[in-house]
Design brief:
The complex is a heterodimer of chains A (505) and B (298).
Chain A lengths: L5 H17 L7 E6 L4 H5 L6 E5 L2 E2 L3 H12 L5 E7 L2 E7 L5 E5 L6 E2 L1 H4 L1 E8 L6 H18 L4 E7 L5 E8 L4 H8 L4 E5 L2 E5 L5 E4 L7 E9 L2 E12 L1 H12 L14 E5 L2 E6 L12 E10 L2 H21 L6 E9 L1 H30 L2 H24 L3 E2 L1 H25 L10 H23 L11 H30 L1
Parallel strand pairs in A: 7-20
Antiparallel strand pairs in A: 1-2, 1-6, 2-3, 2-4, 4-5, 8-10, 8-19, 9-10, 11-12, 11-16, 13-15, 14-15, 15-18, 16-17
Helix pairs in contact in A: 1-10, 1-13, 5-8, 9-10, 9-11, 10-11, 10-13, 11-12, 11-13, 12-13
Chain B lengths: L2 H19 L1 H21 L7 H4 L1 E7 L4 H9 L6 E6 L6 E8 L3 H12 L8 E6 L1 H30 L2 H24 L6 H27 L5 H28 L6 H36 L3
Antiparallel strand pairs in B: 1-3, 1-4, 2-3
Helix pairs in contact in B: 2-7, 2-10, 6-7, 6-8, 7-8, 7-10, 8-9, 8-10, 9-10
Classes of the chains: A alpha+beta (505), B alpha+beta (298).
Chain lengths: 505, 298
């Protein structure tokens, strides 16, 4: 049995750690992606990240298992007993639906693939005509995340970024889906106002609104559809709970209004505005005159060519309005300065190409090494080193939860390139030149090390400016290149040098 | 002829002509620079920029459509539109169209939809839009990044070798490694993307590997003549560059389904590696040889 050196042991340990970071799973499990705070499930103790094992005694192995178990349980529409086994704990409660929990099937590895691979929307936004401080942009990031969450969009990443000139931007990435509604929501200031005459009764956001009914069908629903010009239209309606002060304002404003001709409603309507555009006007029933009412019903409509489409549109409009009411408005207008929508199908194609390309590069490089040195052991050592570098880089990317986008992958490939260069230098210094070379092996390795450190420092120096230039959109390229070459110089190259010594001995 | 004789022969020849060899890369560099200056004077830009650096929309549409007809019909509305195809090398079947214009994404998208009579959505297309002001600032910043990157690299080289002429030779070779590919890119009228500039940055770090190898061996190795040291670096370095080229060229030529901006990285790296062969083994080697002869190293 060959005795391994410390450096080779270090490589093995780091490889095992990388494996743990990537943690490929050979079975799929269904995990809770998100639980609505203060919902029944939440209060029972179900949390995001738990693995759902059983639902009402049915084993859950896939999303299909989960949906069919849920549909079966709630098919009657009445309150049913729910028994969930998750993370080996049992949770039992009664509910009419379980929409408060979002599940996903756990990815087979912990490597996060960016938009270029999974498809989705990437938007870079900038406030129009104002420059923001660091804390302002953080607020914007918080509000936007909150909005997207409230809108029901999953898999989002919202971050602020700065360019070399000190401008602040917000980068929003929504994986998987791309829809115009999300883009509209992102770009809108979201200023909601309910007015009677020209007096504002209440605005969107926490100051005036204590809660908005959303997932409960008894107070938030599409109420009815009817044929309309060019197709169908559907109405929706949902309840909004006002804070005491806004309710009092409503009472003060309506107190002096007269009744209309029918006597059923007040003479003025309640007008709803989003970003200064009127979206709807509601009749106020006479009974509400001068009343301090905290519950208000908001209505609106959506239309489409078919009835199904109209229902869908009504739901989207309702969702948008609810989101804006909950999260309030931004103190300025936003401008979308860059918008990429990437098709999931093209993304899949891209992943496949990358994979093929990776294999192709591996084969070509291995062949070249073999043809040059004619030694199978050396070739294997090079292959092992290349593989280790990629694997450890991916492990680190998984550890820091880096989204692998196209530039990041280009960086990994570039990292392999410099890695192979360094290995050739080590081979040539330590093996091939031995015959007509009088310097000691120590001296030769020292020289190889000097070349390698030199190459390492120049590539790091060359990549550093990319962290900031261009709103950091090419940061992934710099990051994975630097991780790759660092892994090379710290872990794989020393181990490779020792492997060569073993092979030569 | 034994290896030794061959080497002696090689040495004599090299000793005679190494200064003359320097003229070749200098001539190529001058031609490239003159071409770039001419290009800058006529277009006002160092190179053509794609929509990610100048503002506009790029639509990558899957499928096989008549791109020439689409282009001529789109030209009626969008003057600067360019339509290219991506095809599978083995079957030469068109896989996708790339439509590039400075227009706004909605306008371009609906025009293409009308002409082709299809619906463009996330199932069949990628749409990338960049606002003009953002793209222009991207462009400026990436150029600044390129300059900073070059300066940092130069500092590292001076720090490594701590001698003026050999360090300058490496930096000069790195400079030529950027200028020559840029001239070729311009000559073929390729519009550079943000990822393309990242490739130039990569080139700065990547191309100096062989120069560092050469300089280290000539300055730090004690045995053999200067020519032996240059020749041993040449054997190692050429193999490094050829291996890299063997990996990068197929990446560009064969894998056509990659996004265009991504493939451009490989194109620029290939051109840069070719330039690097010239600049390391003609430019840098001649200068360091000259330096070694003057300093009576060996």
């Amino acid at each position: 049995m060959v005795k391994l050196t410390l450096r080779i042991y270090i490589l093995i340990i780091v490889l095992i750690l990388a494996l743990l970071m990537i943690s490929p799973k050979f079975t799929t499990s269904i995990i809770v992606k998100e639980v609505k705070t203060n919902s029944t499930s939440y209060n029972q103790g179900i949390r995001a990240g738990m693995v759902i094992q059983e639902f009402n005694s049915k084993p859950i192995k896939s999303i299909e298992d989960y949906t069919s178990a849920v549909t079966e349980t709630f098919s009657s529409g009445s309150e049913s007993r729910v028994e969930i086994k998750a993370d080996n704990q049992d949770f039992v409660f009664f509910a009419t639906n379980i929409s408060e929990i979002n599940v996903e099937s756990e990815p087979s590895t912990k490597i996060k693939t960016g938009l270029d691979l999974s498809g989705g929307i990437r938007a870079v936004l900038k406030p129009a005509n104002v420059s923001l401080s660091d804390s302002d942009i953080q607020d914007l990031v918080d509000i936007t995340s909150q909005r997207l969450n409230a809108f029901g969009v999953k898999d989002i990443s919202v971050r602020s970024t700065k360019d070399l000139q000190g401008n602040n931007f917000m980068v929003v990435e929504v994986a998987g889906a791309s829809s115009k509604d999300i883009i509209d929501l992102l770009g809108s200031q979201g200023k909601f106002e309910a007015k009677i005459g020209n007096q504002t009764v209440f605005e969107g956001g926490n100051k005036d609104i204590s809660d908005v009914c959303r997932s409960d069908a008894s107070c938030s629903a599409v109420t009815g559809c009817f044929p309309a010009e060019g197709g169908y239209a559907c109405n929706f309606q949902f309840a909004v709970y006002l804070r005491e002060e806004a309710a009092k304002k409503h009472a003060d404003i309506t107190r002096n209004l007269s009744l209309d001709q029918t006597g059923k409603y007040l003479s003025e309507k309640l007008y709803l505005y989003v970003d200064n555009n009127e979206v709807d006007s509601l009749l106020i029933s006479s009974g509400l005159r001068g009343q301090t009412t905290t519950q208000i019903s908001i209505q609106g409509s959506g239309s489409g060519v078919t009835q199904d489409e109209a229902v869908k549109q009504a739901r989207i409009q309702m969702n948008k309005l609810q989101t804006i009411l909950l999260t309030g408005s931004l103190p300025y207008k936003l401008e979308i300065v860059k918008l990429d929508t990437i098709s999931p199908t093209l993304g899949k194609e891209f992943s496949r190409s990358i994979f093929l390309l990776g294999i192709l590069v591996f084969i070509i490089v291995s062949l070249a090494i073999f043809v040059k040195y004619r030694k199978i052991k050396i070739t294997l050592a090079v292959i092992l080193t290349m593989f280790s570098e990629v694997f450890i880089t991916l492990g680190i990317a998984a550890l820091i939860k880096w989204n692998l986008d196209a530039p990041s992958i280009a960086g990994i490939i570039a990292g392999i390139g410099t890695g192979v260069n360094d290995q050739i230098v080590i081979i040539d210094e330590s093996v091939s030149d031995k015959a007509n070379n009088s310097s000691s092996i120590k001296e030769r390795i020292k020289r190889a090390l000097f070349i390698i450190v030199g190459a390492f420092l120049t590539i790091v120096a060359a990549m550093i400016p990319l962290f900031w230039a261009g709103a950091g959109l090419l940061r992934g390229f710099a990051l994975t290149t630097i991780i790759g070459v660092s892994v090379g110089i710290l872990v794989t190259r020393p181990a490779f040098a020792d492997m060569l010594k073993k092979i030569e001995a | 002829m034994s290896l030794e004789q061959q080497n002696t022969h090689h040495k004599n020849w090299y000793d005679k002509y190494y200064k003359a060899l320097l003229l070749i890369p200098i001539a190529i560099l001058l031609i490239s620079l003159i071409y770039l200056i001419g290009f800058y004077k006529s277009t006002g830009n160092l190179f053509l920029r794609d929509s990610s650096l100048s503002g506009g929309t790029t639509i990558t549409l899957q499928g096989d459509y008549d791109h020439l007809e689409l282009e001529s019909r789109l030209k009626e509305t969008f003057k600067d539109v360019r339509v290219r195809t991506i095809s599978d090398r083995s079957t030469s079947k068109n896989l996708a169209l790339i439509i590039d214009s400075s227009a706004n994404s909605e306008e371009l998208k609906s025009s293409v939809e009308n002409i082709l009579g299809i619906k463009i959505d996330e199932k069949n297309a990628n749409i990338e839009f960049s606002g003009a002001s953002l793209s222009n600032s991207f462009y400026k910043q990436l150029i600044i990044a390129l300059i900073i990157s070059f300066i940092l690299m130069s500092c590292v080289i001076f720090f490594l070798f701590r001698t003026f002429i050999p360090s300058l030779a490496v930096i000069f070779a790195a400079f030529a490694d950027i200028i020559m590919p840029l001239a070729v890119i311009n000559y073929f009228g390729i519009a550079v993307s943000a990822a393309g500039i990242a490739a130039f940055l990569m080139l700065i770090g990547y191309s100096v590997d062989t120069d560092i190898l050469l300089t280290t061996r000539v300055l730090k190795k004690k045995e053999g003549t200067v020519n032996d040291r240059i020749y041993s670096s040449f054997k190692t370095g050429m193999f490094m560059t050829i291996t890299a080229l063997l990996a990068v060229i197929p990446a560009f030529v064969l894998v056509t389904t990659l996004p265009d901006s991504f493939r451009q990285i490989f194109l620029i790296l290939s051109l840069g590696l070719f330039a690097d062969i010239v600049n390391t083994w003609l430019t840098n080697a001649s200068i360091i040889k000259w330096y070694a002869v003057k300093k009576r190293l060996s």
